[in-house]
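in:
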């Protein structure tokens, strides 16, 4: 489960930094990007290897302090995301400054408590640390209470935005809000555990394990909610990419025939800059160019077509697209042979008609499939 969480968090961080590179002045996006980055940075510090290495370099307890400071920054930046996204921008910035002062006070308090604690008292985990030492109990209690406060406030704001949003954004917001509520609940449980252990009470390992599972599952749900809208959008774009790639290949027989009859319909890309030429090789650009070239080619050879098969009385057994395919080949032959269009029956086809682009594309694909099947 830890690997799944780290992988999801890494994907979320990479995706948000990519979005931020497109809009570097977007304050809410910057806040959520830094929020996820701090969360991702705190995770390796909490691992046994990372904690041991940092404690070796900076002294015992340094990893625990760094982890909690990163978590404080995570929830503060999460609150800033909503504050900067508020309608009243000036009021949001003022509230963000107040929250920044509060998180600085909390960070300084837990750092001072960690610095005054006896040697190696903070080196252990939450389950093994001696909470009867008041500095240790203060360290965990203050950090936990602030995390609970920030996550609760952010969770309430998330639910408010989720009610006003449409899918898929509402789905992501509801998931993220549920994750924040779960994390806040886990922080509240940990605060109760700290108070009980500070008074000398024993807490069973099963309770500690349950709280840890709630925290991990809630964190996964939060990361999923943050990344779900963007992930769904990318999946839709991937499906569109695959569809355009298939349609580009299906149009090849018709495109070859049209460019053979009218080579000048091929759109030129040689005169463009190197960046434009690189973008022109994209699937969507090539798909659009082939669609335009096929449509323009049909317009060029339309005077050579003998008749419009859509208006002819053909038998039910006749494949109209195959008839069109044969007529297209005959028209291309007449065009290449230099036959005057006036010598042919000048009936302009309705392919493609003045309809939607998607309807035109389906007509072109049907013609291209008919040409492929009659080869």
């Amino acid at each position: 489960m830890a690997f799944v969480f780290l992988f999801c968090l890494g994907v979320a961080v990479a995706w948000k930094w990519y979005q931020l590179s497109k809009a570097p002045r977007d304050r809410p996006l910057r806040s959520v990007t830094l929020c996820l980055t701090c969360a991702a940075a705190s995770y390796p510090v909490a691992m046994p290897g990372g904690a041991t290495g940092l404690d070796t370099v900076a002294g015992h307890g340094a990893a625990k302090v760094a982890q909690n400071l990163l978590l404080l920054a995570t929830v503060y930046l999460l609150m800033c995301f909503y504050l900067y996204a508020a309608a009243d921008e000036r009021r949001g910035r003022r509230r963000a400054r107040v929250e920044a002062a509060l998180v600085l006070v909390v960070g300084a308090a837990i750092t001072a408590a960690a610095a005054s604690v006896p040697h190696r008292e903070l080196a252990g985990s939450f389950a093994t640390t001696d909470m009867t030492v008041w500095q240790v109990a203060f360290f965990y209690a203050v950090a936990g209470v602030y995390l609970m406060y920030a996550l609760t406030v952010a969770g309430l704001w998330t639910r408010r935005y989720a009610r006003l949003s449409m899918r898929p954004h509402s789905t992501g917001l509801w998931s993220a809000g549920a994750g924040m509520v779960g994390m806040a609940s886990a922080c509240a449980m940990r605060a109760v555990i700290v108070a009980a252990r500070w008074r000398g009470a024993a807490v069973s390992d099963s309770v500690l394990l349950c709280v840890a599972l709630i925290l991990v599952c809630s964190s996964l749900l939060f990361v999923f909610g943050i990344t779900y809208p963007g992930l769904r959008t990318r999946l839709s774009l991937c499906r569109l990419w695959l569809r355009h790639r298939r349609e580009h290949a299906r149009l090849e027989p018709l495109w070859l025939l049209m460019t053979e009859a009218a080579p000048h319909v091929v759109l030129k890309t040689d005169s463009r800059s190197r960046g434009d030429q690189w973008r022109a090789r994209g699937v969507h650009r090539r798909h659009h160019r082939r669609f335009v070239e096929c449509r323009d080619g049909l317009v060029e050879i339309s005077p050579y077509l003998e008749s419009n098969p859509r208006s002819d009385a053909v038998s039910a057994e006749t494949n109209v697209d195959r008839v069109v395919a044969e007529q297209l080949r005959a028209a291309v032959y007449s065009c290449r042979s230099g036959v005057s269009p006036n010598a042919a029956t000048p009936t302009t086809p309705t392919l493609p008609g003045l309809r939607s682009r998607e309807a035109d594309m389906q007509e072109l694909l049907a013609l291209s499939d008919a040409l492929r099947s009659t080869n």
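note: Confidence is low (pLDDT under 50) at residues 49-59, 307-318, 343-353.
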